[in-house]
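Working notes for the structural subgroup meeting. M.R. asked for a predicted model of this chain before we commit to crystallization trials. I am recording the input and output together here so anyone reviewing the notebook later can reproduce the run.

Input as submitted:
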Amino acid sequence: MTTKSAVAAARATVYGYPRQGRNRELKKAIEGYWKGRVTAEALRATAAELRSAHWRQLAGAGIHEVPTGDFSFYDHVLDTTVMVGAVPARHREAVHADALAGYFAMARGTQDVAPLEMTKWFDTNYHYLVPELGPDTVFAADSSQQVAELKEALALGLTARPVLVGPVTYLLLAKPAPGVAADFEPLTLLDRLLPVYAEVLADLRAAGAEWVQLDEPALVQDRTPADLNAAARAYRDLGTLTDRPQLLVASYFDRLGDALPVLAKAPVDGLALDFTGPAAANLDALAAAGGLPGKRLVAGVVDGRNIWINDLHRSLTTLGTLLGLAGRVDVAASCSLLHVPLDAAAEKDVDPQIRRWLAFAKQKTCEITTLATGLARGTDAITGELAANRAALASRANSPLTRDPVVRARAEAVTDADARRPQPYAERTAAQRAHLDLPLLPTTTIGSFPQTADLRAARADLRAGRIDTAGYEERIRAEIREVISFQEKTGLDVLVHGEPERNDMVQYFAERLDGYLATQHGWVQSYGTRYVRPPILAGDVSRPAPMTVRWTTYAQSLTGRPVKGMLTGPVTMLAWSFVRDDQPLADTARQVALALRDEVHDLEAAGTSVVQVDEPALRETLPLRRADHPDYLAWATGAFRLSTGGVRPDTQIHTHMCYAEFGDIVQAIDDLDADVISLEAARSHMRVAHELAAHGYPREAGPGVWDIHSPRVPSAEEATALLQEGLGAIPAERLWVNPDCGLKTRGWAETRASLEHLVAAARTVRDRLSPS
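Returned structure, recorded in token form:
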């Protein structure tokens, strides 16, 4: 039974929706614009069509209040930088001359101007552009994009709520601008920023906004008293404005902790809270804070980050409890649906039994509206939906597809000794140097080479039956021959086969491991126009056959220089997949690690002397609360060591990480016990090299000297300067020279030039260190 007020109040909403379109129309239009094939006007028209389609789709599913401002050409944090006028000085001329071209210059850089730094959005695989601020930053409101999108939605007859990155989170995500003291705190600019937000809020109210959502996910992290005081001051000032819409402050991804009573007491009109996973603790915390009497609560009870169907009965129980804690309770996903694919119904190749367990963005909107109906009208109104949901949940829980007794027995038999290299590093490095005979400052790449149109066409031809397997494999061999030949001619020391056979660094392995499920249309935005299809961990994981040995061995047969075996590590295999929610992550990681361990040993047996096990997601998967770090890091580093343990001392184990904040996991990097680590460093100007040095990191490292997420080609002099900076932290005998990340997204022309410059820089510095 529900109350009359619940009937009146319960509504369905979301915080954001996938941007790309059913067939990734946005990606194609933006990349066409970059190449000069699509005009700015045509790009904007495509974006408007996609926004309209998304809003109509949401409204058609029963969403009562659609979001605006969540759509972006590249990144919503970059959009906020434009909105508050914090464009870096080096980009102002370009933005003034052509706003759209200047916007993309901030995101990608140009040949002459570096882009903004890019890093992970909290513990997701989405990347944002880091604001650059300093004591001289002058903010100025530009609400044109936010107002225009609101008016578009209102013109369709929809109830719309603009969604903005909140001022506190914006400043906490920012970093000191180049040339500004490293200890500068952007949060000190809050009093300067709040009047700009006040102006934007007034503009949105004038345009017809009844509510505006201000996202403050940074408040779910451990925050200092000064941070919490800043949040209290921000929402005191914004809440007491007279010319504003009603304010909804949102948080997600974890529990709010000490920040929850701060927001609950603020003079705002409502809160939007996550009640899934660890954020379920928000329920008791909200009750302890006295609830939100007379205010709106948007309850995120549908997991916005994973793809499993919701337990409707459990969510209704949570919602029923919340009814007594707020003046009005609405239903939503836990966060923006940006982090899940669009439509599970499009996955026609997925076993129908498994497909009924899945909920992508479209299905989640239906779950949200079903819950809102049940909350407002009672469970009798959704009897059929509840019965179907119970049956689907039972089907998954009891399916033999999810459990393999052999895999479970092997995982349970793992010992501590299995997760250790038997020889100490000093002994291993001596054996490796004797075996590999590499020069000072050895050069290498991270793994992938450009995925050309010809390679993508070859895969499409194979799927369509236009070529047979033999024809496809000959194309792959030809590409490997070209990549090996180029690397030899350029002068690289440790080579890679280029990964032409791989569609994605996680999906490739998922398609070859039992327990994983690959999708055909499950695209999710990683950054800009980079979309990935995260596979789904549906059951226990094992490796039925070698996955990489054949192509690595073929590449090695073409050269006398060492060729790295390239694998994706267990934590990244989890982080860039949709994981099981029916067992601890540590258990799944152990299963994946054992499968990779088999591959490492097969590569070694086939003559591969260097094996790279990439873990770019080690940092991004770090829990947002420090209290949860030790347990996570213990099983995460243990899974890596399990995958690489037991190899000979002269087999060199590499790992790679990129585009994250590494300073607070240096000990974990050390605990991996890899012989060599390569890390992103170009955009952050070698900061990670100094963090490793401050820790006393004892092994070899390759901080990147080429930012591969920008189309610009660094000069040899620029690479030399970065390398010299790296030498200021890491001794030459332990320093490698490499790009920031794999080259899959780059073109061959820029790849050739950049790698030639990289090798030239290494030779220049070698000569300085060892003059003839």
